[in-house]
Design brief:
It is a single chain. By secondary structure, the protein is an alpha/beta fold. Helix content is 49%, strand content 15%. The longest helix has 17 residues, at 122-138. It is globular and about 45 Å long.
């Protein structure tokens, strides 16, 4: 289940497409679906989340939090994924792509982190980006350029 909170509506997010993408990921990874709170934010909000939780004073594309061990609220989400709609719009514009595809690329990236993937090295980053493209394509979404 995914609960979506839109703080920044700069990039439209189609609920049906989002559902197809997340289903493709969990199916492809052989993982049970997670209860996820997806928060679509702007640069300022993302910078604030990044500073408060990670100690980084800059904006970024996606931040994912695994709450499964940190929460006592059994009805709350197991994970939170913050995605930056303003950055997605800028990146898509600079490469001539669709902002909605860029934003979904961030969502997939965050979910893959929650499923145990890392991007600390060029090889890991390349592997994650390949998986992101594969899952978007599996859901009928053209990946960003």
């Amino acid at each position: 289940m995914m609960d979506v909170t839109v703080v920044c509506d700069r990039v439209p997010l189609d609920a049906e497409v989002l559902s197809r993408v997340t289903a493709a990921i969990f199916r492809g990874e052989g993982a049970d679906p997670l209860s996820v709170s997806l928060v679509v934010v702007d640069d300022a909000h993302m910078r604030q989340v990044n500073a408060e939780h990670l100690g980084h004073d800059w904006t970024t594309d996606v931040i994912a939090f695994d709450l499964r061990e940190d929460t006592l609220d059994e009805d709350g989400p197991e994970c939170e994924v913050y995605v930056n709609a303003e950055l997605a719009a800028r990146e898509a514009s600079s490469r001539g792509g669709e902002a909605s595809s860029e934003l979904l690329f961030y969502v997939v990236h965050g979910l893959l982190h929650l499923l145990g993937y890392h991007d600390g090295t060029p090889a890991e980053r390349g592997g994650m980006h390949a998986l992101q493209r594969r899952y978007l394509e599996a859901a009928g979404v053209i990946p960003p350029n």
